[in-house]
Design the sequence.
């Protein structure tokens, strides 16, 4: 299997603090991996490193997307290259309507490859159809991005974006389960599972096991203090659920 | 007021004396501390010469053209029924109304002294005019002054929409405009200052609101080298309400000043202010907002908010909110923020594939849009709507 996303001995620093101490992870096409870890283990830092947030500095190692290093690429270039980060805390953008935001994001992709901008009417239809599948109302589409959205609405909107931008290679889902009730979790998981295919890969970052019983991973990795301390199949997630992170942490 | 009515020439003479005495205010003047004008001294500021070619109207509706500050009747439309235009020469009370409301050390005294004429726009009681009346200020030369004196009198229960478009090319533009709203009158007003890069704009609006009257005013200031858009407003009768919003967009070495003095004189009145500014390059922005609530103005509701977005390290904003409350039963709030674009928001947009510059433009346009949403009248709103996009992209 070809490596879709390859994280090679990744070391990272935020400000003066070293957060990641050599992470190795390879996700093949069609695979779903999960990273679990307690608070402060470096999960969010890893997701920002992958997405290319300013201020998150790679101090060693590399990240390759379909064989191409992401190191020199800005966040927007990485996104257009096919990487999608579903955020733990989607940001509110008062005054930027959902439709104009989605159109700007899609047109940025089209412009980058020399295609014409999307047809307005067709695009609205496309968005509405995709939104309906995720239980997102037309009324929500008229609001400002994430402004006044409930926790569940925010996460559903993240998955809508992931579907629309047709993440070429796949997505990184950062604690997508936080703030979701059981019904919302089901809707979000179904949305994600629909995007699973033989070409895309996904990395699901979570603190708890419950998301992984809906989005069943091929591999599970435990992140602790900036290192992957154990890897296994989905059973590992259940083990964490049972015993907590304490035992695993000690083994590191 | 039981005072002797002064004749126009006497008022002008008094204003000349007042300005000669006070001169241009410098840094020591509290009211002009952040916008000193002593740089304007040393020039005589002769009146602008007429003869400018009127530009196409940008707004639908009847238009009055002011060239170098002075009305050009030949270039203006006739007014629809309900509006009446009179010279202040024939209505000395109008000039006296303005003169009585301008401080003796205020530079607007120069406009009072030097404007060769003034006009009264009278809206008949009960008139209800949906179509916007457009005051279009054009023309003038870089070393000359363009003063204008106008009094808008809205009769009891009248409704109207008024736009001021300032695209003067004079060195000094000094529109002094009074708004005298009788009981129950309702006026929607917008002022768009987009003057030439060399113009100094010193605008003074004086408004008095009688019982149950209602003024919604929006100022957009994006032109000129230096622009001070000053409003003095008195809620003089019970249950009057005023919404004063402003947006300034500064780039290069521009200086924008929004100064508002709002007096709650009567009980049960409401006022709302949202002042926003965007500053790029080495531009400077000033907001001075004073709310005074008189002792008898019980149950006052007064809100003020100012927000400035700084797009460069060299840009600078000064904000000075002031509340003076003498009544005990009031709900007054004010707030002020000065900040840069949010890193979280930029990252979110970029993580969706939107390049940094486009992401910045989107956020700037959104910031501007919130101010434009204050415009209550749809015709005025659509007039100024395109501004957000074009400036966001340029900035």
Sequence:
């Amino acid at each position: 299997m070809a490596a879709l996303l390859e994280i090679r001995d990744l070391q990272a620093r935020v400000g003066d603090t070293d957060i990641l101490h050599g992470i190795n992870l390879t996700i093949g096409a069609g695979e779903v991996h999960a990273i679990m870890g307690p608070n402060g283990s470096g999960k969010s830092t890893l997701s920002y490193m992958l997405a290319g947030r300013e201020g998150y500095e790679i101090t060693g190692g590399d990240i390759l997307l379909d064989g191409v290093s992401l190191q020199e690429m800005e966040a927007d270039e990485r996104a257009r290259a096919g990487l999608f980060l579903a955020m733990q805390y989607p940001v509110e953008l008062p005054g930027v309507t959902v439709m104009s935001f989605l159109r700007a994001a899609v047109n940025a992709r089209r412009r980058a490859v020399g295609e014409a901008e999307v047809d307005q009417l067709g695009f609205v239809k496309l968005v509405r159809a995709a939104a309906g599948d995720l239980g997102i109302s037309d009324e929500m589409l008229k609001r400002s991005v994430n402004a006044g959205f409930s926790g569940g609405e925010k996460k559903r909107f993240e998955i809508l974006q992931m579907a629309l931008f047709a993440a070429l290679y796949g997505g990184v889902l950062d604690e997508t389960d936080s703030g979701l009730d059981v019904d919302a979790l089901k809707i979000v998981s179904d949305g994600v599972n629909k995007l699973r295919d033989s070409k895309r890969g996904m990395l699901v970052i979570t603190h708890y096991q419950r998301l992984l019983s809906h989005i069943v991973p091929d591999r599970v990795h435990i992140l602790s203090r900036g290192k992957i301390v154990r890897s296994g199949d989905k059973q590992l997630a259940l083990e964490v659920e049972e015993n907590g992170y304490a035992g695993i942490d000690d083994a590191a | 007021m039981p005072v002797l009515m002064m004749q126009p020439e006497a008022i002008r003479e008094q204003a000349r004396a007042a300005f000669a005495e006070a001169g241009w205010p410098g840094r020591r003047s509290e009211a002009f501390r952040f916008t000193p004008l002593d740089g304007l001294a040393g020039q005589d500021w002769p009146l602008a010469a007429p003869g400018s070619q009127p530009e196409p109207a940008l707004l639908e509706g009847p238009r009055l053209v002011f060239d170098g500050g002075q009305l050009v009747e030949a270039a203006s439309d006739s007014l629809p029924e309900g509006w009446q235009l009179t010279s202040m020469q024939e209505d000395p009370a109008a000039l006296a109304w303005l003169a009585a409301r301008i401080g003796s050390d205020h530079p607007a005294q120069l406009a009072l002294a030097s404007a060769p004429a003034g006009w009264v726009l009278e809206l008949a009681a009960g008139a209800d005019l949906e179509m916007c009346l457009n005051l279009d200020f054009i023309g003038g030369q870089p070393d000359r002054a363009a003063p204008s004196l106008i009094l808008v009198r809205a009769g009891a229960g009248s409704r109207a929409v008024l736009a001021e478009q300032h695209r003067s090319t004079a060195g000094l533009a000094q529109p002094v405009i009074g708004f005298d709203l009788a009981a129950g009158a309702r006026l929607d007003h917008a002022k768009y200052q987009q003057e030439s890069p060399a113009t100094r704009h010193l605008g003074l609006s004086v408004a008095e609101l009688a019982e149950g009257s209602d003024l919604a005013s929006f100022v957009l200031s994006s032109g000129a080298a230096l622009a001070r858009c000053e409003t003095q407003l008195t809620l003089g009768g019970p249950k009057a309400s005023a919404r004063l919003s402003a947006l300034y967009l500064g780039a290069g070495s521009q200086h924008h000043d929004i100064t508002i003095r709002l007096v709650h004189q009567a009980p049960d009145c409401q006022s709302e202010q949202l002042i926003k500014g965007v500053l790029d390059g080495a531009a400077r922005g000033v907001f001075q907002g004073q709310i005074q609530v008189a002792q008898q103005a019980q149950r006052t509701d007064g809100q003020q908010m100012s927000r400035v977005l700084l797009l460069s390290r060299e840009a600078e904003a000064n904000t000075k909110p002031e509340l003076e409350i003498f009544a005990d039963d009031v709900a007054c709030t004010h707030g002020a923020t000065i900040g840069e674009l949010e890193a979280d928001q930029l990252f979110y947009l970029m993580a969706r594939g939107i390049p940094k510059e486009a992401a910045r433009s989107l956020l700037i346009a959104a910031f501007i849009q919130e101010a434009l949403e204050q415009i209550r009248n749809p015709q005025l709103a659509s007039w100024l709507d395109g501004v957000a996009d074009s400036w966001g992209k340029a900035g």
About this structure: Chain A has a mean pLDDT of 88. Residues 48 and 89 of chain A are 12 Å apart (CA to CA). Residues 98-112 of chain A form the longest helix (15 residues). The interface with chain B takes residues 51-55, 74-76, 78-80, 85, 87, 90-91, 93-96, 100-101, 104-105, 108-109, 112, 144, 161, 165 of chain A (CB under 8 Å).
